[in-house]
Amino acid sequence: MARYEECRRLKQLGLSNRKIARRTRMCPETVRKFVCAETFPERVSYPQRSRTTEPYAEYLKKRLQEGCRNAALLYREIKAQSYRGGSATVRRLLRSWKHQLHVRYQRLEALPDLMRRLHARLRGGC
After folding, report:
1. Which has more pLDDT, 55 or 66?
2. What's the burial of 83, exposed, middle or buried (CB within 10 Å: 0-12/13-18/19+)?
3. Whole-prediction pTM value?
């Protein structure tokens, strides 16, 4: 509210919107809105949107508990079940669940056989 009043005061003193924006370190578009508004423009609150992953949450939790940690694979699985969202949404959801579900991720160093085979393949062996 103080920023709104400051913009209005500076405009009455004859400053341009651009100068007001520089002086107050505000976005010029915000300054324009404040200057044009007769009263303080209240923020609009929007109803919370439902998540596109909501219908698949139980399936994803079950797969995590089974040990699947591959977000790309889980994305493909729910995509086959008619999921219409993006892979980044699935990754963010799984990342947020990591601590809530007490899911343990194994580091590659904990898998010595896999690491030996990987190093051998990188060096040209079979």
Report:
1. 55
2. buried
3. 0.47
